[in-house]
Amino acid sequence: MDSFAGKLAVVTGGGSGMGRELVSQLAAQGCSVATCDWHEDAVGQSAAMAQAGAAPGVRVTAHACDVSDEAQVLRFRDELLEWHSREHVDLVFSNAGIGGGGSFVTDSREEWERTFAVDWQGVYYCARAFLPLLIASGDGVLVNTSSVNGFWAALGPGLPNTAYATAKFAIKGFSEALIEDLRTNAPGVRVAVVMPGHVGTDIIANSIRARGLPEPEAMTDAQLADLIPPDARAKLIEAGALPECASAEDMRQMLTRGNADFRDKAPLSAAQAAAIILDGVRAGTWRILVGEDAKMIDAAVRAKPETAYDYAELFSGLAGAAAAAAEKPDR
Ligand SMILES: NC(=O)c1ccc[n+]([C@@H]2O[C@H](COP(=O)([O-])OP(=O)(O)OC[C@H]3O[C@@H](n4cnc5c(N)ncnc54)[C@H](O)[C@@H]3O)[C@@H](O)[C@H]2O)c1
User: Fold this and answer.
1) 16 assigned to some structural domain
2) 151 and 59 within one domain
């Protein structure tokens, strides 16, 4: 695929971060886009921004849809075909995702299953809904967003990440399994799996919102205690993220600061990440690592899988992995 001009792309989770940037960059490159999000206002804003910078003839539409609900995904599909007067789509970016359900031991089953449903079932339902339309395109691409946590199931010491990593491993496995299936049974469609490292977005704040909680400043003490239970608070104090005897106000500030730092101090912006993803799709890459950190962790984990969770050893090997990744940037 040399160019996206004249094509129709679907982007899930278009209301923020990499999804919003994918929508804008696709539209600027002549691609019409149907984007969805479960936050209707946010996705409406993304569509308006993208339409303002779009190439002539491009149409960008915004749709409300929770990708973890199959009926809503099917309604989104039917709505976008009608609004764009098309019978096929050329690109599907299954990008929507949230964090949460870090501990299988201590977090609630409800939270664990919500994260898994959004991250895995969202991708699965979209593949089910859109594959026939990609086949009808004759030159379709399914782009599933996994993560470094799709090949390394950790965030570091004391930070379990079980629901997210389980879903992201599933996305990677599903996407890789589709390579031969599509080659054999649907040769007009290919699949790519996107594995970003740290990208500066509001995913922390959006994931807190996904639990039905307000912005940190508006959280009640009870909501804060539920979000950061005493043992988690103790670990945050030990790690220096909270002062001794942290008050509710300290925790509100830490959450706000944590999201801002994650967004503003990242090695890559959402716009840079989206550009890397689109370059990879255009080039026909099936394995799109986003960021030097993703390339380094990938190389380190594959070089010594047995020590992937011995953080000191893994991180000490990252310098060597960086050199290897620099030599082979598309690994
Ligand atoms: N930011 C990172 O460092 C990073 C790293 C690796 C992977 N990722 C993955 O990249 C993707 C995009 O993340 P981002 O960082 O841009 O996050 P983001 O929070 O900025 O954007 C995600 C968007 O998805 C939407 N969304 C969430 N659940 C949804 C649902 N059920 N239905 C419809 N829309 C939903 C959110 O409302 C939000 O607008 C996610 O799959 C995420 O897991 C992000």
Assistant:
1) yes
2) yes
Asked whether 51 and 24 are in contact (CB, 8 A), the reply is no
At 201-259, the pLDDT tens digits run: 999 999 999 999 999 999 999 999 888 888 888 888 988 889 998 899 999 999 999 99
| Element containing residue 74 per DSSP (H, E) | helix 70-84
2 located within any domain: no
Please state, in angstroms and as integers, the Cα–Cα distance from residue 90 to each residue in 5, 20, 281, 284, following that order: 11, 18, 12, 14
Q: Ligand 1: which atom is nearest the Cα of residue 196?
A: 6
Structural domain count of the chain? 2
Residue-level pLDDT at 256:
95
The whole-model pTM stands at: 0.95
Cβ(203) – ligand 1 distance below 6 Å: yes
Range of the domain at 212: 206-262
Is the CB of residue 196 below 6 angstroms from any atom belonging to ligand 1? yes
- C-alpha 296/C-alpha 161 separation (Å) is 20
Residue where one domain finishes, among candidates 262, 280, 300: 262
Last residue of a domain, one of 243, 262, 281: 262
